[in-house]
Amino acid sequence: MYIGVDLGSRTVKMAVWDGERLVEHRIEPSGFEPHRQAEKMIADYRAKVVVATGYGRHLAAEHFADAVITEIKAHACGIFHEFPGCATIVDVGGQDSKVISLDAAGRVSNFQMNDKCAAGTGRFLEIMAASLAYTLEEFGAAALATDREVQINSMCTVFAESEVISMKNRGIAREEIARAVHSSVADRLAGMLARLGHGEVVAFSGGVARNPCMVELLEKRLPRVRVRVPELPDITGALGAALHGAGM
Amino acid sequence: MATEFEIKPYPELWASLDMDVPRFDKARLMLGEAYAKTYLSQTKRPVGMAYFDNMVAEIHGGRIQELLAAKAEGRPVIGTFCVYIPEEIVLAAGGICVGLCGGSQGSVPDAEKILPRNICPMVKSAFGFKAGRICPYFQAVDFVYGETTCDAKKKTWELLDTMVPTYVMEIPQLKRQRDLDLWLAEVKDFKTKVEEVAGKTITETDLAAAVKIMNNKRKALQRLNSLRHHNPAPISGKDGLLIEQIAFYDEPVRFTGKVNALCDELEERIKAGVAVPTKNAIRVMVAGTPMALPNWKIHNLVEGAGAVIVNEESCIGTRYFKDLIDENATTMDNMLVALTDRYKEIDCSCFTPNDERITQVIKEFRDSHAQGIINYSLQFCHTYNIEEIRIRQACEREKIPYLFIESDYSAEDVGQLQTRIEAFLEQIGE
């Protein structure tokens, strides 16, 4: 068994690879001690190699992991396995968003990652959903249900929240604001993709890829590009780490 | 060793300089801890680094006493912020030129009580050091000589002048003949100002001697840089950067001797095959904005991940020492022309066009046998931030692995930067 654990800013993900296929996966909240959470999650498996990735990767290596790789490399491994030949990945996680370019062999050839703020990340969407009193599931669905759009100008989470509050208080419909929030993130991702360049297929990984509105809006901004989402977008990094452990 | 290190306290000296002593003493302890953690934890350090460790230990005392002793003899002490201010002229008048503090997050809140938040961290930090009375160099100087290399500095001088006399040299932003003529006139004004404060007229002999001192200092730093280019590297990038930082406050002749002694040791190390940190460490070159003491953020992350930095294309780096002044000029006028000719070779991004810098970055990449370039820009430094695009395009053209980082002095983005830097090293290593 090869285990990959992705100690992310919001959740810990685990993927178990038996040498041929993904046999198990789990997602749990990171909590205060993400490495203990991760240790608990892998306790039931007899692992040959444990590879850690994500923000807590070095902490995991201090406690139990055999090797570490960055989440950038982990997503590259995970996506290249899922979609061989894919040259571009957009990964939107809890704390950051990344665009990764792969060469023909699946190696990282270039990448871009957001700077220190939460702009364009899963956390940004969470905060905006909360300020509109939506659950995350409702948030994406509501945004998808309308095509009327207002413009959100700020990408700063703090300023965007006050922008959303002032929109609410101008009487703008909730779903229109929801759509505007999604659009602003999609614009930012499209901008990062344009800066780095991309192929005809763009894989979308990370928890935010489960949001159907994000996928649709991103695809709309990329003419002649197919946006593909893996079956389990959240565990792409963990899977990539497991595959790396298996020498793939 | 790490536990024994401390930055030496000089409370009476600081009080005599009207500093905020209790607060500064806390800053001293924090800097000492950061230094021990960042520097003294390194393995395989050259013996010759002991001198530079001591320069850090004496940064707030021993060196300040030297400055005050010079002042007592009537020699001017002038603070600067830019490699365009000609140190030779200060030296020729018997004075001392020091680069002022501006590399720490600690003084930023002092500045933000007055200055806008969304400006360059170096400008904020420097201004805050003076406003908070927490930099002995700022307290010791006769005056500050600023320049017009960026808008943030240019407008901050007006405010700084209310706390310490601040003069401004206009640095043109193009390099046509009429711009160079203006620059030469500015250099002459600077000379007049320095002479006035020193109470002496600079002779050709004085200036020739000062040019020689500065050329020797630059040659020593060039020698160190080319030794760092050896593969495997005989010294860490952190140590290399530290020496480049100390170059801005140490006495130049002594400093030159110590750098040359270190270079002798590095040559021996190369013969003996010493590799820092390891033989196959990934080699990275840094380009961009200056990293003022104690800004070791990027070097710490890169070398913490097992790689080595082998070159800084920066004002605290090659831009400070890559060019020499022609020593053959004889009359004062010709000497000042030769001096200005050398200074105009500095390829700061404040100039337009600035194609020389793009070429220079690629040249230094090749010379240093680096495997990738990290282009570093301070937040809100518009000219370096925009010039980044041309550096990136050049790297794409030359197929050079490239990472751009925009950051300030705070620790809040260290997690993201660590991920980006490690991913960059993975990319190079594959």
Characterise this structure.
The complex is a heterodimer of chains A (248) and B (430). Chain A is α/β, with parallel strands linked by helices. Chain A folds into 2 domains: 1-83 and 233-248, Nucleotidyltransferase, domain 5; 86-229, ATPase, nucleotide binding domain (Nucleotidyltransferase, domain 5, 2-Layer Sandwich). Chain A has helices spanning 34-42, 57-63, 71-82, 122-131, 136-144, 157-168, 174-196, 212-220, 236-245, and strands at 2-7, 11-17, 22-29, 49-53, 67-68, 88-92, 97-102, 108-113, 201-205, 226-228. In chain A, strand 2 (11-17) and strand 3 (22-29) form a beta hairpin. Chain B starts with 10 loop residues before the first helix and ends with a helix. In chain B, helix 10 (177-198) crosses helix 16 (332-343). Chain B is 54% helix and 10% strand. Chain B has a domain at 208-324 and 348-429: Rossmann fold (3-Layer(aba) Sandwich), CATH 3.40.50. Chain A binds chain B through residues 55, 69-73, 95-96, 107-111, 113-116, and chain B through 402, 406-407, 412-413, 415-416, 419-420, 422-423, 426-427, 430.
Note the run of SSEs of chain B as H and E.
HHHHEHEHHHEHEHHHHEHEHHHEHEH
Mean pLDDT figure of chain A: 93
Strand content of chain B: 5-15%
> Between the first and last Cα atoms of chain A, what is the distance in angstroms?
13 Å
Estimated helix fraction of chain A: 40-55%
Strand line-up of the largest beta sheet of chain B: 2-1-3-4
- N-to-C SSE string of chain A, H for helix and E for strand: EEEHEHEHEEEHHHHEHEH
Question: Distance N terminus to C terminus of chain B?
Answer: 37 Å
Q: Mean pLDDT of chain B, nearest integer?
A: 96
Oligomer, anyone? heterodimer
Let me know the largest β-sheet of chain A: 5 strands, mixed
Q: Largest interface: which pair?
A: A-B, 17 and 14 residues
Q: Characterize the main sheet of chain B.
A: 4 strands, parallel
CATH class of the domain at 208-324 and 348-429 in chain B: Alpha Beta
CATH topology of the domain at 208-324 and 348-429 in chain B: Rossmann fold
Q: Which spans of chain A of ≥5 residues are poorly predicted at pLDDT below 50?
A: none
